[in-house]
Design a protein that fits this description.
This protein is an alpha/beta fold. The chain has two domains: 14-136, Rossmann fold, CATH 3.40.50.10860; 146-342, NAD(P)-binding Rossmann-like Domain (Rossmann fold, 3-Layer(aba) Sandwich). It has helices at 51-71, 93-105, 120-126, 152-171, 188-199, 211-221, 274-280, 288-291, 294-304, 308-332, 336-354; strands at residues 14-20, 25-33, 39-46, 77-84, 110-114, 139-140, 146-147, 180-184, 203-207, 224-225, 238-241, 260-261, 284-285. The protein is globular. 51% of the residues are buried. The model is unreliable at 357-361 (pLDDT under 50). The structure holds nicotinamide-adenine-dinucleotide. Nicotinamide-adenine-dinucleotide (NAD) is lined by residues 116, 151-152, 155, 184-190, 207-210, 213, 242-244, 264-266, 292, 295.
């Protein structure tokens, strides 16, 4: 397994491989860049088939966090961690405690938050041994409701704001009444996004591999159930993938019938060139790391203790960022994903230059 010459290595500052035979913990922490601040990113638990698969995932996700935080104008660096194991079978308190001890040994250069396979209680268990966990504080959320630290409500709200910006740009409408939206994945983010859309008067189609998640949206929001095969290819106004990455690929893009793709899932493009394919088909793609930044914004402010109004105002800027990306794309003819990378780098360099840091530390390789 290559590390320094790995295709996804991209000048990572730091990689740690943790092993704790007593608890079965095998984990990798990747710190891509800390020029803007400590590297904050989720801790994912997944039954990776190989160590190589885990390494590739953590490197890609970690770099993505540098770009996401820079684009969202947050004083945070980019990092991520993965625990190799099945969260349904292998997760124990002892294992999470061992992870907490390892995080502590990094001295705060990396701060872990929730990700797929980990939840608020897991982060709290890690927090018995380290201060360097986030997304765990009971407080008043950005929307005035009680929050337990879970970033999903802010992610869903930010995705809704970004989806509105995409609809305004592509369809020139501000009123979402009657807008047709298909949502793939009705989990923590997808369900809340569906609720925001329902409140705005949109018509919804939903699909989730877990029947009960889909049924909840049907029963509570009047959504129409769709199938695994159809959900991305319905003749709707917006497709919102909120389940997993790489769903925009060689097979799916030619079949899309919606003029807009705007969803919360990370790494939606299977490969960078799919950005161009979407542009060539006239489909407006809201870059994932721009539209789903609500969660990292929320977690950032948990640590600074800002008011709910401050958090909400910052999440609202996702709409402005996307509008800037869409306008630059329209003017230049370049695809939105490339523009989002470029804007993230501009914001990153503006900050690091202001702080007297070497501006050449970040360059888009994706
Ligand atoms: P979640 O696990 O709560 O929900 C995901 C849902 O997708 C689940 O209901 C699951 O059953 C469903 N699903 C899985 N595979 C599917 C498939 N093939 N087809 C249809 N449904 C499928 O996760 P979440 O927190 O809602 O996150 C959703 C996505 O958004 C993930 O890609 C995540 O990385 C991304 N994201 C989440 C946050 C956050 O704050 N939670 C922040 C940024 C990005």
């Amino acid at each position: 397994m290559n590390v320094f010459s790995h295709p996804e290595f991209d000048n990572h500052e730091h990689l740690s491989f943790f092993c704790d035979p007593e608890t079965g913990l095998k984990a990798i922490v990747a710190i891509h860049n800390t020029s803007r601040g400590p590297a904050l990113g989720g801790c994912r638990m997944f039954p990776y088939a190989t160590d190589e698969e885990a390494l590739r995932d953590v490197l890609r996700l970690s770099r993505g966090m540098t770009y996401k935080s820079a684009l969202a104008n947050l004083d945070l660096g980019g990092g991520k961690s993965v625990i190799i194991g099945d969260p349904r079978k292998d997760k124990t308190e002892a294992l999470m405690e061992a992870m907490g001890r390892h995080l502590e040994s990094l001295g705060g250069r990396y701060i872990a938050a929730e990700d797929s396979g980990t939840s608020v209680p897991d982060l709290k268990v890690m927090g018995r041994h380290t201060r360097h966990v986030a997304g765990i504080a009971d407080r008043t959320g950005f929307d005035g409701n009680p929050s337990n630290g879970d970033p999903s409500p802010a992610t869903a709200y930010g995705t809704f704001i970004g989806l509105q910006a995409a609809v305004k740009h592509k369809l020139d409408r501000s009123d979402l009444r009657g807008l047709k939206v298909a949502i793939q994945g009705i989990g923590n983010v997808g369900f809340r996004l569906a609720r925001h859309l329902k409140e705005a008067g949109a018509e919804l189609w939903v699909y989730d591999i877990h029947e009960d998640n889909m049924q909840r949206a049907v029963d509570q929001l009047g959504a129409r159930p769709a199938s695994a095969e159809d959900i991305l290819f319905l003749p709707v106004d917006v497709v919102a993938p909120c389940a997993m990455g790489a769903v925009l690929n060689d097979d799916s893009i030619p079949q899309l019938r919606a003029p807009i793709v705007a969803g919360a899932a990370n790494n939606l493009l299977a490969r960078p060139e799919h950005d161009v394919m979407l542009r060539d088909r006239g489909i407006l793609y809201a870059p994932d790391f721009a539209i789903n930044a609500g969660g990292i914004i929320d977690v950032f402010y948990e640590r600074t203790g800002a008011t709910p109004g401050t958090v909400r105002a910052h999440v609202d800027t996702i709409g402005d960022t996307l509008t800037e990306i869409f306008n630059r794309s329209s003017r230049s003819g370049r695809p939105t994903g490339a523009i989002a990378n470029e804007l993230a780098e501009e914001r990153f360099h503006k900050h690091t230059a202001g702080a007297g840091l070497a501006p050449e530390r970040l360059a888009c390789t994706g």
